[in-house]
Amino acid sequence: MPKSSPCASPWPSLWLASLVVLVVQSVLSSSYSSPSSYQRPAAGGKRPGFMGRTLVLLDVNTRSPIRVLNDNFLSLQLDPSIIKDGWLDFLSSKRLVTLARGLAPAFLRFGGKRTDFLQFNNQKNLAKFRGPGPDYYLKNYEDDIVRSDIALDKQKGCKVAHHPDIMLELQREKAATTQLVLLKEQLSNIYSNITITARSLDKLYNFADCTGLHLILGLNALHRNPDNSWNTSSTLSLLKYGAGKKYNISWELGNEPNAYRSMVGRSVNSTQLAEDYAKLRTLLQSVRYYHRAHLFGPNAGRPRKNAILLLDGFMKNAGSVVDAVTWQHYYMDGRVNKAEDFLKTRLLDTLTEQITKVAKVVNTHTPGKKVWLGGLGPAWTGGINNLSDTYAASFLWMNALGVAAVQGIDVVLRHSFFDYGYTHLVDQQFNPLPDYWFSLVFKRLVGPRVLAVRVAGLQRKPQPGRVIRDKLRIYAHCTSFDNHNYVRGSITIYIINLHRSRKKIKLAGTLRNKTVHQYLLQPHGKDGLRARHVELNGEKLLIQDNETFPELKPKILRAGRTIAMPPMTIGFYVIKNINAYACRR
After folding, report:
1. Is residue 405 helix, strand or coil?
2. How far is CA 214 from CA 368, 435, 438, 491, in A?
3. Where does the UniProt annotation place the signal sequence (predicted)?
């Protein structure tokens, strides 16, 4: 289990007393014999208490939080490729709007690999700029989009559309064709520009505004003058349009600037990038509506040598310009072909190492500056079909949220909410994938105050606690204040069991003899880790229609009952009526 930061206050003596009592009870119980009294079982029989030979004692420091995160800790990302493949036109779908609302409040970052090829064109209707589609339906398809836009314009406030099934099917065909073009560009490192029109920005902002998400818009950092300085013409036009519409937007410049040389054969060093950010800050201040707008960056890639060098130089020269430092982390490439690979502890632990590297650089130049994971996903290059879109990937996602929270990452932006590929929360049928359901439960139950966890493992033969710490990961937060089913002072614990066997957790200390509400999420059906559906306490989770979520019903565990975690599962546990001091204020 990842180590928590030291608590601000000492552990109460109640913990020690409870631990001693539980140890004695466990040793004397028939299901947990001591090593000295252990007897070999008869031939063909099982050892006494075989399934319960490991008991984990768990307590949480309820006096004070070790971290207080942003209220939008779990946030979302959309890739600019949705303009090119056409999915931007369908963000007004009632079902997509409903699914995004379920994860609010959150930030919505519009950025990714193609951020640096966006060009703003201040025109309303540019049908000729639309992406290619099969000739036999292109004309009618484009006419349908235009008619849909006209209908949306007549609506006041939040604009929501109903798209016929045939229209969605044609869009899926178009997106599949366009994605082959985008993949070819990525493999050849020859990228075409993407035009973001005024109409496109209207649709994007309408989606964010309707769903309670705050838009962060990525700007093209590769639009350069002959002297390699940043060309601000397109950005200034965009800012003026957004200000005129009173669009409340935050900003960032570029995406993974450390990778520009490999992408386009030209580089932007840290000094130049710092100057570009200073120029953007000045530009924002010159537009009255955005003079106090937030600016985030530099959105560096995984903290390897080049990225760390760029981040270090940027923080030295422009650390005070940005409101939060952003960087990205992706766990694996497309060569993975086993679901079990997503459960490897070495893979899960890479994030802790990367956070340590970034934090060291940031604290050297701007101590206390907020750090964001500006892009996080299970895999890059679109992910892996039937792997990164299944239950198996949820172990990476939930562990990443736990590690990031304990390490003080203020916001985690998940790549991506919706698009073509296999790393998203919602698929092209507008159906939520396992990671969506985990995100929804996380949003409903987990608040921004992080608590320190203390774990003690009891085993038949005393061994180093490596296995328990590595494969049983436990995180604790104050329960979300937005959840009115629980009073302030409640605690939410989420547990990740990577073991192939059941594990028992006994609540001790301040948690002892408290009623617990269990939200156990398991794969649905016979596909196991490759399942694309999730069940909560045995009930399959489904969206009933385009605007109704299923009721998230807990299973009530009586006070003092041991928590039994099935193998390779993830569960959330709310401790009610604990009146935790850290969670009351």
Report:
1. helix
2. 24, 21, 21, 27
3. 1-29
Three-state secondary structure call for residue 494: strand
CA distance 315 to 456: 40
* Length in residues, the chain: 585
Comparing CA positions, the residue from 458, 455, 457 lying closest to residue 476 is 455
Residue 456 sits in a domain whose CATH number is 2.60.40.1180
Same domain, 314 and 407: yes
Q: Is residue 482 part of a domain?
A: yes
Are 412 and 401 contained in the same domain? yes
Tens of pLDDT, residues 240-283: 999 999 999 999 999 999 999 988 888 999 999 999 999 999 99
Whether residue 135 lies inside any domain: the answer is: no
**Which residue from 187, 513, 130 is spatially nearest to 382, judged by alpha carbons?**
187
Domain limits for position 368: 70-123+144-448
**Lookup result for tokens 């006419």:** 143
Residues sharing a CB contact under 8 Å with residue 367, sequence separation 6 or more, in sequence order: none
What totals of helices (H) and strands (E) does the chain contain, helices first? 15, 23
CB 309 within 8 A of CB 265: no
Q: In this structure, are 494 and 348 located in the same domain?
A: no
Q: What φ, ψ does residue 519 adopt, rounded to 5°?
A: -125, 90
CA distance 554 to 516: 9
Average pLDDT, the chain: 86
Tens-digit pLDDT profile for residues 465-508: 444 447 999 999 999 999 999 999 999 999 999 999 999 999 99
Same domain, 244 and 304: yes
Cβ 134 vs Cβ 90: under 8 Å = no
| Same-domain status, 231 and 262 | yes
Per residue, the 3-state secondary structure of 100-165, as one string, reads: HHCCCCEEEEECCHHHHHEEEECCCCCHHHCCCCCHHHHHHHHHHHHHHHHHHHHCCCCCCECCCH
| pLDDT tens, residue by residue, 289-305 | 999 999 999 999 999 99
- By C-alpha distance, which of 423, 428, 401 is closest to 333? 423
The whole-angstrom separation of Cα 536 and Cα 531 is 14
